[in-house]
Design brief:
heterodimer; A: 295 residues; two-stranded antiparallel ribbon; 2 strands; 3% strand; flat; B: 432 residues; alpha/beta; D-Maltodextrin-Binding Protein, domain 2; 2 domains; 40% helix; globular; transport (chain B)
Chain lengths: 295, 432
Amino acid sequence: MAYWTTRRRDVLTGYVFIAPQLLGVLVFVLVPVGMAIWYSLNKWNVFTGRQTFVGGDNWAALASDPQLSSVLLATVLFSGGVVVLNIGLGLLIAVLLNRRFRGATFFRTLFFSPVVVSVVAWTLVWGFLLQDNGGINGLLGAVGIEGPNWLQHGDTAMVSVVISQVVRSVGVNMVLFLAALQGVPSELYEAARIDGARSRAIFARITLPLISPTVLLTAIITIVGALQSFAQIAVLTGGGPELSTTVLVYYVFQQAFEFNNIGYGSTLALMLLSFVMVLTLLQWQLRKRWVFHEQ
Amino acid sequence: MSTKDHLMITARKLLGALALTTAVTLTAACGASGTSGGGAAAGSTDVKLRMTVWTSNEDQLKLFDSIGDAYKAEHPEVTSITFESLPFADYNTTLTTQIAGGNAPDLAWMGDLSKDLIGADALVGLTDKLKATNGWNYDDLEDSATKEFSRDGKLYAYPFSNSPFALYVNNDLLAKAGQKIDPKTLTWDQVAAAGAAVHAKTGKAGFVVRDFDYTAWNMLATVWTGFGASAWSADGKTCEFGSPQMQQAFTFLHDAAFKTKAMPGPGTKADFFAGDAAFTVAQVSRASLLKGSFKFGLYPLPAGPAGKYSVLGQAGVGVLAASKHPDQATDFLAYLTNPANAEKLAQFFPPPRKSLLTGEKLAANNKVLSAAQLQEVVVDQLPKAVTLPNHTKPAEIAQKGKTALDALWKPDADIPAVLNSVCAAIEPILAK
């Protein structure tokens, strides 16, 4: 029997097709993660290139880092705010723009357009708008309201970075939800209306279950994206005031590249990686309970 | 063997290959540890030198290139000298990343990173080479200029730029607000009073400490030095933010920001050079930003309660020990900074050479400032000037200090408590 059977050829073809992706995963994921693990076990003097093996010292330093609790709190507040608003507003805007009305295309373009703007340029503009004598306070002043000094107080600084991030990225979720909404069969709505169902019930019983796979997808990508948001913080607040907007990914950058503590920065990066993995796996498991899969 | 079994075996092989590659990479990383560059033999040919700079000014880069070309003409073994312009905001991060990544430049400009580089033995000592270079004239260097770049009497970076901080005044704005100042007897209290009057009358800002922007607090040394305060002790081990002098200085700044409004508060932008402020504290080299849109004055810093003083902003250039050609790089540095080239560089950067430090010589190529101005704000200030606070781990100290100091920039701040919290935050780093 010949070695190159049809089955073997198919298997080989399959591997050839996934080879570029596999190589990418190897070079850009597995190797960096492996190196980060190695660096987390070392103290690295970047000025001389000397590495000293310190075992679990960097991991033990996590427990005694006085700034870490503030950083984790800021991470939870930022990510929580971004995820809730991004999914909630994305869905709301998609539902509103899913109707047929004059100018719907214009509004879809309007809400999506910030996504294509450079994040640094976008954040710089927001920085000017949010400064004490900036555009937003100017508008508030025109209607007799004295606006706060947005980026100088902990609460308003966090609100500011969350809003600037959500306004920029909500268009992605909106487009995904729009695509999902347009895939819901119209006869289901017609049947529900004939049966006398109200709009709220139609949304809860028909729309939401049918777009739940998209909700799962957007939840995963929004959470991962929120945990990786860096430029907004770096440009808008620099992690301040105090540590109110120092999220984990920004703290990783500070430790590794500004303070040259590459070992500790790698340890923090691995902690962030484990958070992302746990949250993603959790959602993947929970999907069985709330994601509707048509049989 | 079934297809399923075959696929599983192939998948195992693939995973094994991935693990092996990762392990090989890790081993390579282990093997790389402990290496620190190292120089090639002095007699190498085809030497390519690279120097990182933070200027992107075309005229300055042209001057560097012309000096590099002249050096190459005399040294055929050096085939290329590149001046790599890195953005100032990320300069330290980029430079350290290049060093950590095994791609260190041969020479580098440096500011507050110098202490770390010198402390880590990452720079080549220059004194012997410069003293031995014919005509270099080492004794011509101003002592106050070399202090920050020296350790145990040995120079590790040539202080090519020594730009004292000065007070720029927008005379048009002062006139509009009916304010007059006497630069000979000017004090910080008078600047604050005039600044507050300008703000009240015109809506423009009073005085601005340029580049401070409520984040880069070390720039405030241009004010607190006049109050007799310093960030830490001379040996760099004890924090002095809690001193009465520092409290007095920060009370002055806090009042200016929140009570008299002489200084724009946090989150308010005001650019002196665009005509938005009556005064600014900035380096003399910033005079190139003046575009003639208003009448200006340039004076030494106003006196504080502790009297007259001067603060210096510096940049040095050193040779990295990780350079592949440290000998050739040091030789080029000696050439770049010899008396003739130092005179050329002086048109952009106030030099450390006493022989070049006269108002007339500095004014020869300066289109904005007169000889008298340069004599008063540069030449007369340099010998007694102190530098901005500089310490090892500058970025970490800056961030920890800023995090604590943020609490001060509120109208009802408890100034002594906040300043003590700055010490609590930075003292563990100072003690390292």
